[in-house]
Amino acid sequence: GLPLLFSGNNLVKAIRSGTPKDAQTLRLVVDLTENGKTEAVKRQNGSNYTVVFTINADAPPPPPPPPVVAKRVETPAVVAPRVSEPARNPFKTQR
Fold first, then answer.
1. Nearest C-alpha neighbor of 26 from the set 14, 15, 35, 38
2. pLDDT of the residue at 67
3. pTM, whole model, 2 decimals?
4. Which long-range contacts (CB under 8 A, 24 or more apart) does 59-66 make?
5. Could you write out the DSSP letters of every residue in 37-55?
6. Angle CA(24)–CA(38)–CA(9) in degrees, nearest 5?
7. pLDDT digits (tens, 9 = 90+) for 71-81
8. How far is Cα 15 from Cα 28, in angstroms, rounded to an integer?
9. 26: how many CB neighbours lie within 10 A of its CB?
C-alpha cells in the first residue's frame, strides 16, 4: 500500500496518494530527493493501459573549488651591521 518509502541513495524518496480532482482520477505524488525531469508514456495492450514514468535527475552542479590557502612567508629584515669605532677624545688632535 501507499505510501511507499525508499531508503538509501535513491532519486525517489516516497510515493504517496494525493487528492484526486474527481472520482475518475487517481493521483500519485512522487517525492524526490533532488530536482529532475519527468516523462510519462501511456501504452495500450488490448483493453489494458500501462503508464510508464521516467524520472531523470538534473545534472548536479559542479563541486565548489577547494579553498585557497595562501601562506605568507615572512622574510627576516636584514639589518646592516654597524661598524663600531672606538670613542675619540675631543681634546686630542687628530693625526
1. 15
2. 86
3. 0.56
4. 60/34
5. EEEEEEEEETTEEEEEEEE
6. 115
7. 777 777 777 77
8. 7
9. 7
Per residue, what are the HEC states of the chain? Answer: CCCEECCCCCCEEEEEECCCCCCCCCCEEEEECCCEEEEEEEEEECCEEEEEEEEEECCCCCCCCCCCCCCCCCCCCCCCCCCCCCCCCCCCCCC
Cis peptide before 3 (omega within 30 of 0): yes
Q: What gap in Å lies between CA 38 and CA 16, rounded to an integer?
A: 17
**8 burial type by CB count under 10 A (0-12 exposed, 13-18 middle, 19+ buried):** exposed
Cell reading at 80: 646592516
* Cell digits of residue 27: 493521483
- Residue indicated by cell numbers 505510501: 3
